[in-house]
Write a structure and sequence with these properties.
heterodimer; A: 421 residues; Rossmann fold; four-stranded parallel β-sheet; three-stranded parallel β-sheet; 15% strand; B: mainly alpha; 3% strand; globular
């Protein structure tokens, strides 16, 4: 008995040492690319005519780490698109198979993943990861091999200013234009209730900074005064001192450049610091309908965010998408990122069908020329892949997301000033 | 650089001291274990996160208040710590060196298992008082941090009393000072080691519960916390609980102050700079004793 225990312990120790040896270099950071497992290789749908191999489409997504919430939402969008296509006979008569790797929100891993997808897995097509931070380096890999790179969430200015022509950002507007409707709303408020001062508090992330800095410019041009601009490290967990600093200056409006976790962190810290702004906008976070509500409860009331899509939209193909989503994933509200990933699929699909081709050069050409029917509305791109539409603005009202502008999409009047959080 | 107003300065000082108390509790178990066994328990951060997850599960599924759940998690962790020392660490030849590897492996295994069970989504425990703050004059004391600070001091005081005024405590201190002499005086040093390790791990249960209401966490947060607690005990002097308390308060205040005077980016840099300077002047840390290698 005792020797059995001893043997077990020795084995445990050996295993532990082996794990230490393997994992030592990367410690607890992202797993190295070579060991990243294929998380969701879609099962090859059994077709009646298995003569032709499936079309393989590769992506690397942040399924773990800082971007895991929106990354997982994006994965759902891709998966749903592939399923919908396969159910209706596939693409060019062939089934679609997704090859998805988890990059743990790490740009280096994401780059290695796309290298592997293109050179080793030899996928036919690739689609982009979540958010500018990962899109910027990975799009260069795709460009190097001549692959078209439609992507769901990478709209920072730096995505477009490198002269690459293979990127297609599948949201209605680049980051720098996403908050125009919000800024217009603020500047359109009557003189006596319009905020005079604002603070920008943003994570160090190209997407967030791009959105908040363009917002700040619009507001400053409109006569508001920026009393503080703070950039914090992306993994910040403790916002208490930052909140104390903001509370001390007490700006009328807070503009937060956030992913999900830090939007919650900021708001909790503001609550503790007793800071009650008259208005608040956060880039990502409020757009996650389930998680934001779970994390903050009633504190969500009155919070604004720019948004590309909403569930109730009656734009062509959207009702079908919403129905298919709920049939596959249940009744929880749909995250914007799932819709954006689905949009990528739609663009790719229409480009392939229009040209009857899987040649990436042909597809890139088509994507620059055509207008695509998507769940975020008709989408077309300029010569560096900037979309030519416009965003909307959402507000949390009674525990739900509603669209409060611009007028053509409006579901309810905005609440101003926002109630205390 | 901005010069904060007096009000903001005092408010930040308050936040720093409160968070420092919690850091002290988190580091106290680590320094205690090192003091007695000369073992760095690299899995301490993972135990903190495990404690946070258990608190999370108890709160989500049984609505048990995170502070009350400490009463449940402390005994569990004590037993885990005891078993770990008796059946794993005590069997390692040359524990002072190889235990770092073994506990590091343990940390990685725990992180992996927690990742499988809870995924990597960041969690936090949000009792009704999460966003509340008490006011004294015009200064705000966030309730979660105030409670964290109070509980941390209480547990550290308890540890101190055990070490100073009980026979068990005297035996632990004797083992710290000279294990061979302690053994000659009739102290069962292997039992003392197991007890100390168990006690150290048990403090992580309390530390984890406090962590869960103040910060968000996921399995990989363990590496942040082991780094932070290790820095604290090195600054305080390895093995010294009062040293850990002082170092934790310094870290807490410096972090928060740097954030308002410069930016959050500089917080770790300023602290590590201070740590390096201290180690150059006082290699044994603020309250540490110089350890003589015994042949």
């Amino acid at each position: 008995m005792k020797s059995n225990v001893l043997k077990l312990m020795i084995r445990l120790a050996i295993v532990s040492l082996l794990i230490t040896a393997c994992g030592g270099a990367t410690a607890t950071q992202a797993p190295a690319a070579t060991e990243a497992p294929a998380v969701t290789e879609a099962p090859v749908a059994a077709t009646e005519a298995p003569a032709e191999a499936p079309i393989r489409i590769g992506a690397s997504l942040p399924l773990t780490g800082d971007f895991s919430d929106p990354g997982t939402a994006a994965e759902r969008g891709y998966q749903l698109w592939a399923d919908v296509v396969n159910q209706s006979g596939g693409l060019l008569g062939r089934q679609v198979e997704l090859v998805i790797y988890d990059n743990a929100s790490n740009p280096d891993t994401a780059v290695a993943d796309y290298e592997r997808l293109i050179t080793q897995d030899k996928v036919d097509l690739v689609v982009g990861p979540f958010s500018s931070k990962l899109v910027i380096p990975t799009s260069e890999v795709a460009a190097k091999y001549g692959y078209a790179f439609p992507e769901p969430a990478g709209g920072a200015e730096h995505v477009f200013d490198r002269g690459l022509t293979n990127i297609f950002f599948c949201q209605p507007a680049p980051s720098s234009e996403q908050s125009i409707p919000f800024a217009q709303f603020i500047l359109g408020l009557p003189e006596d209730s319009r905020p005079k001062t604002f603070a920008v508090i943003t994570g160090d992330d190209p997407f967030s900074i791009s959105v908040v800095d363009s917002t700040a410019k619009l507001l400053t041009d409109g006569g508001l005064t920026m009393v503080l601009r703070e950039v914090y490290p992306a993994d910040t967990k403790d916002f208490s001192s930052l909140a104390a600093k903001v509370a001390d200056l007490n700006p009328d409006l807070i503009v937060g450049g956030t992913q999900f976790e830090d939007s919650v962190g900021q708001i909790k810290a503001y609550q503790q610091a007793g800071y009650q702004p008259r208005g608040a906008m956060f880039t990502t976070g409020p757009s996650l309908p389930k998680e934001f509500d779970e994390a903050l409860g009633t504190a969500t009331e009155g919070v604004f965010a720019p948004i590309s899509w909403f569930e109730e939209s009656t734009i062509e193909t959207n009702p079908e998408f919403v129905q298919a989503y709920h049939a596959m994933y249940g009744s929880d509200p749909i995250a914007e990122d799932s819709a954006n990933a689905f949009t990528v699929g739609q663009v790719l699909q229409q480009a392939v069908e229009n040209t009857q081709s899987l040649d990436n050069a042909v597809l890139i050409d088509e994507m620059h020329k055509a207008t695509f029917t998507t769940v975020v509305g008709p989408l077309s791109f300029d010569d560096v892949g900037r979309p030519k539409g416009s965003f909307m603005v959402l507000q949390w009202q009674n525990g739900k997301i509603v669209i409060v502008g611009p007028d053509y999409a409006k579901q309810a009047d905005p609440i101003w000033p926002k109630p205390n959080w | 650089m901005t010069i904060p107003s007096f009000h903001l300065f005092v408010q930040t000082l308050i936040l720093g001291v409160l968070v420092g108390g919690v850091y002290a509790l988190m580091a106290s178990g680590l320094t205690l274990i090192f003091g007695v066994m000369r073992v760095i328990n690299v899995a301490h951060g993972a135990f903190l996160i495990l404690g946070a997850y258990i608190t999370y599960v108890l709160f989500q599924n049984f609505q048990i208040d995170p502070i009350a759940s400490i009463l449940i998690t402390i005994p569990i962790f004590f037993v885990i710590g005891w078993l770990l020392q008796r059946y794993m660490l005590s069997r390692i030849a040359n524990p002072e060196q190889t235990s770092v590897l073994v506990t590091f492996a343990l940390a990685l295994v725990m992180e992996g298992l927690l990742g499988i069970i809870f995924q990597t989504t960041a969690r936090s425990v949000t009792p009704s008082y999460t966003s509340a703050a008490l006011m004294f004059a015009t200064y705000r004391f966030p309730v979660t941090r105030l409670m964290g600070f109070g509980i941390a001091l209480l547990i550290i005081l308890l540890l101190y009393l055990i070490l100073q005024y009980t026979n068990l405590g005297r035996a632990i201190r004797a083992t710290t000072q000279d294990p061979r002499a302690a053994q000659l005086m009739g102290i069962n040093t292997s039992m003392i080691s197991a007890f100390t390790f168990a006690l150290g791990v048990a403090t992580a249960a309390a530390g984890g519960a406090l962590l869960s209401i103040i910060y968000s966490f996921n399995p990989s947060s363990q590496s942040d916390w082991i780094a932070r607690t290790l820095s604290i005990i090195v600054l305080g002097g390895l093995g010294s609980i009062p040293g850990a308390l002082i170092a934790a308060l310094i870290l807490g205040v410096m972090e928060q102050m740097t954030a308002i005077v410069v930016t959050l980016y500089w917080s770790p840099i300023v602290f590590y700079f201070f740590l390096f300077i201290t180690l150059i002047i006082r290699p044994q840390g603020l309250m540490g004793e110089i350890i003589r290698e015994k042949g």
